[in-house]
Design brief:
Elements (H helix, E strand, L loop, with lengths): L2 H4 L4 H42 L13 H93 L5 H92 L3 H12 L39 E2 L4 E2 L36 H38 L10 H29 L8 H12 L9 H4 L12 E3 L22 E3 L3 H6 L8 E5 L18 E6 L6 E5 L5 E5 L3 E5 L1
Length: 579
């Protein structure tokens, strides 16, 4: 169907229709804009909601349960879904709204041009019709004047009172008017023919071209709208797989909830380890002692009476471990009778029930081992950097790392001291009476000393199997600092037997009991060393030794002289080369 053929006389209606089409595009653009704003606002509010309900630092322990983790998993997926809504808004803005705005500008300009062409053609047609009307009026006027002149001439001919000259005068006027009428008639006929030809051209050729252009413009607008609608569907469809994945994640989060595991976690979190209170003994008030006081013959000496036991939030304890009621048990007690909570957070966690104490100590040991592993990695990096500086002084001064290495050594000293201290706490909590530190503890420290990922996999329970007995005199073992500025360095100004040393019982004796150890490398003394402990040997600067046993994490390496004298020397005083 062609507008130029079918709607040849509907110029005004077509003009109105095309304007409504542009208005519709503008209205659709506003709809998409508002939809984008809603999507963005929804995504922002959903993200804010998820953020507001994330666990606070003090609540993290309560979110270890599977149901809490399931809720957190669901909120994470909702956060990702919100991101997809933001993506929808961004794509709609970029691919639909902007294109619609460009389309409307093009349509407005194109419509204006086509309508101007139509108006120009209409004006030309009206002008031609005006010429035709003017020519017709001139012809009508000439025809009336001719009729009047002819009538006057006929009257003059029949009037006998008029002279011949007057009759001829009326005749001449009639002939003149008849000539003018003929000229106007011919002019009118020519104008009419021209107007008809122009009118036919106007309605069959020129205006149909304008209408055809308007039709193409309108069809272009409709096609573009169709593409935009399809683009909206494509944008929606592009995020459906991700949203479906998020929904699957929500189902997975729901499936991960395990009521039995939560119950076990409650037991693990709150189990005190105390025994059930013993039976309340019978007190026979009829048996009176000599001094008249009540007898408690039936009460075992080592069993606390009912009045000496009470139940706390952590379990049942005796008067020996009596604590102030806290939490809900002391909710209604007067604040003036409550003593300050000085022992709420003890270093060895002895204020907690046995199970919780061991759990806290194991966690603390894991944290310390992680810190040792981190510091050891930093030390290795600085040592490698110093070696690079030594080989190529242009890159940097090796001595610039001395201060950092010394600080790192002090940190390692402190961390290893802390580790052995908490190992002792854990052993005491477990009731171990083994007086010596097990070799496995040294192996754990050695693995942390050597660095690598395996250092973090050592279980803290392995470290707790054999505690250190601090009340037994032992040789002082200096913790390795791997720095030339070690605290044992003679010019460091720090005493080797100070608080930075670690008590290590029978370590030399255990090591020297081994016979026939193979040589695993060589070393050279960087600094002189005077042996002050049993099992250690002196060494002079630049003296060479064979390495028999690598540093196990306590800061000492077992070496042998050329005369077969064996003993321990500080690892930080030597440079080792292992075969």
């Amino acid at each position: 169907m062609n507008w130029g053929t079918e709607l040849w006389d509907q110029y005004d209606n077509l003009s109105t229709h095309t304007q409504k089409g542009i208005d519709f595009c503008e209205k659709y653009t506003h709809f998409i804009k508002e939809r984008c704003a809603i999507e963005t606002e929804y995504a922002g509010k959903l993200k804010k909601l998820v953020k507001n309900y994330q666990p606070k630092k003090k609540e993290e322990e309560d979110y270890q349960f599977t149901h809490a983790q399931g809720v957190l998993g669901m909120m994470k997926e909702l956060h990702d879904i919100a991101g997809q809504h933001e993506l929808i808004a961004e794509n709609l803005n970029a691919k639909v709204v902007k294109e619609l705005q460009v389309l409307m500008q093009e349509l407005k300009q194109e419509r204006k041009k086509h309508l101007q062409d139509g108006q120009r053609l209409q004006v030309e047609l009206n002008q031609q019709l005006g010429l035709l009307d003017k020519s017709k009026r001139s012809y009508e006027k000439a025809f009336r004047e001719m009729e009047k002149a002819t009538e006057n001439w006929r009257r003059a001919e029949s009037d006998d009172h008029l002279s011949r000259a007057e009759q001829n005068k009326y005749k001449d006027i009639s002939v003149q008017r008849s000539q003018i009428n003929d000229d106007c008639k011919q002019g009118y006929a020519a104008t009419l023919q021209k107007t008809n030809q122009y009118q036919e051209q106007h309605y069959t050729v020129m205006m149909p071209q304008v209408f055809q252009q308007l039709q193409e413009m309108e069809e272009k607008r409709v096609t573009k709208l169709q593409n935009f609608i399809r683009e909206c569907g494509t944008i929606e469809n592009s995020v459906i797989p991700i949203i479906n994945t998020c929904i699957d994640g929500i189902f997975n989060a729901a499936n991960s909830v395990n009521p039995s595991k939560d119950s076990e976690m409650v037991i693990d979190k709150n189990k005190s380890g105390f025994q059930h209170p013993q039976d309340i003994p019978f007190e026979d008030l009829s048996q009176v002692t000599v001094n008249g006081s009540s007898s408690s013959l039936n009460t075992p000496k080592n069993v606390p009476t009912r009045s000496e036991t009470f139940r706390t939030a952590g379990g049942t304890v005796t008067k020996k471990g009596k604590q102030k009621k806290g939490g809900i048990l002391g909710m209604f007690s007067s604040s003036k009778h409550q003593s300050p909570k000085l022992d709420d957070h003890r270093e060895d966690f002895s204020n907690l029930p046995p199970n919780q104490q061991k759990k806290k100590l194991n966690k603390k040991l894991d944290e310390i081992k992680g810190s040792i592993s981190k510091e050891t990695s930093e030390r290795d990096g600085m040592m490698k950097m110093r070696d690079v500086y030594i080989q190529n002084p242009a890159l940097g001064d090796p001595n610039s790392l001395d201060k950092e290495l010394e600080e790192n050594a002090l940190k390692l000293d402190h961390l290893r001291t802390e580790m052995e201290k908490f190992v002792t706490y854990l052993a005491e909590a477990e009731g171990s009476t083994t007086p010596n530190m097990h070799r496995k503890h040294r192996a754990s420290l050695a693995s942390l000393q050597s660095g690598g990922n395996s250092s973090t996999n050592v279980s803290s329970t392995d470290l707790s199997s054999t505690p250190i007995q601090h009340n037994t005199p032992t040789p002082a073992i200096v913790v390795d600092s791997v720095d030339s500025q070690h605290t044992d360095r003679p010019d460091s100004g720090i005493d080797r037997n100070s608080s930075h040393t670690v008590a290590r019982e029978d370590s030399f004796d255990d090591a020297l009991d081994d016979e026939g150890l193979p040589v695993i490398g060589t070393c050279i003394a960087v600094y002189p060393f005077e042996a002050t402990n049993e099992g250690s040997i002196c060494m002079a600067q630049d003296e060479h030794f064979y390495i028999l046993e690598q540093d196990q994490g306590d800061g000492w390496t077992r070496v042998r002289r050329g005369n077969n004298e064996e003993g321990f020397v500080p690892t930080s005083y030597i440079e080792c080369q292992y075969s």
